[in-house]
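Whiteboard transcription, Tuesday session. T.W. wrote the structure tokens on the left side:
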């Protein structure tokens, strides 16, 4: 049986484009399935969420994935979506605006005392949009920070530096994280075996140590001196990873040689 998706009159009244209206209709339809399902409840943000890949939505709308990306970005700016980006995992999409009279769709409450609470009171539209924007940025920044620590393996100190350098802008923080991880993959591609302990932040402490010491000057110099800031950062971080890998590899080698000559390991003394 063919499934129909409800198109809400409010979308047109809010001035959304036809593609934005249809995309939101699909997402609110999916949210109806997520509500009440504990597997789609974010305890950190006290709210239900959905997942929707760009490829899936592009097929449903019969548009390119680039167009879907543009739709997502516009809906975020207009306060209809909150996208919690997560490294090495599916992004979570929150729908902060309720389309139900009892406001049951949006269950986002105060995320932090510093954040603005989403509500549908008698505030004017301008004030509500500003509150929504601030909460969107807070949620994204907080979610990205946790993903960089828990998923990517960055140290909390490094993430704190990146937040400061990005001026707490979640888009800039995301870009910096992507550049660092791409530089790491490039540095490791041909020089280090896949299962080597040299590759991982958890087993190679010099990776985070070198990043903590050099990230700020790399990013600041990229913006102040380089014509191509992206290329400058990518090359600089790649060189940094190669140096950290070489130094830690040498440490392991030196420790192995020292262990060989400890009294307990000298066979001729036994």
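and on the right, the sequence the group agreed on:
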């Amino acid at each position: 049986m063919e499934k129909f998706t409800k198109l809400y009159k409010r979308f047109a009244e809010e001035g959304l484009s036809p593609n934005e209206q249809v995309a939101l209709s699909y997402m609110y339809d999916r949210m109806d399935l997520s509500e009440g399902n504990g597997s789609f409840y974010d305890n950190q943000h006290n709210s239900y969420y959905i997942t929707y890949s760009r490829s899936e939505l592009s097929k449903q709308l019969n548009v390119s994935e680039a167009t879907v990306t543009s739709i997502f970005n516009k809906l975020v700016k207009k306060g209809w979506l909150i996208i919690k980006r997560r490294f090495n995992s599916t992004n979570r999409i929150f729908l902060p605006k309720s389309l139900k009279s009892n406001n049951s769709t949006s269950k986002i409450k105060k995320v932090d005392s510093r954040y603005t609470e989403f509500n549908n009171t008698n505030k004017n539209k301008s004030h509500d949009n500003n509150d929504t924007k601030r909460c969107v940025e807070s949620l994204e920044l907080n979610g990205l920070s946790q993903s960089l620590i828990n998923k990517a393996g960055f140290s909390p100190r490094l993430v704190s530096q990146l937040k400061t350098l990005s001026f707490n802008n979640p888009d800039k923080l995301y870009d910096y994280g992507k550049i660092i991880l791409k530089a790491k993959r490039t540095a490791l591609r041909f020089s280090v075996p896949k299962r080597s302990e040299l590759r991982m932040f958890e087993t190679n402490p010099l990776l985070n140590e070198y990043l903590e010491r050099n990230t700020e000057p790399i990013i600041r110099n990229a913006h102040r001196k380089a014509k191509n800031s992206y290329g400058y950062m990518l090359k600089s971080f790649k060189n940094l990873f190669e140096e950290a890998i070489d130094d830690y590899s040498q440490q392991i080698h030196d420790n192995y040689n020292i262990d060989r000559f400890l009294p307990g390991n000298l066979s001729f003394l036994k």
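Someone added at the bottom: The mean pLDDT is 78.
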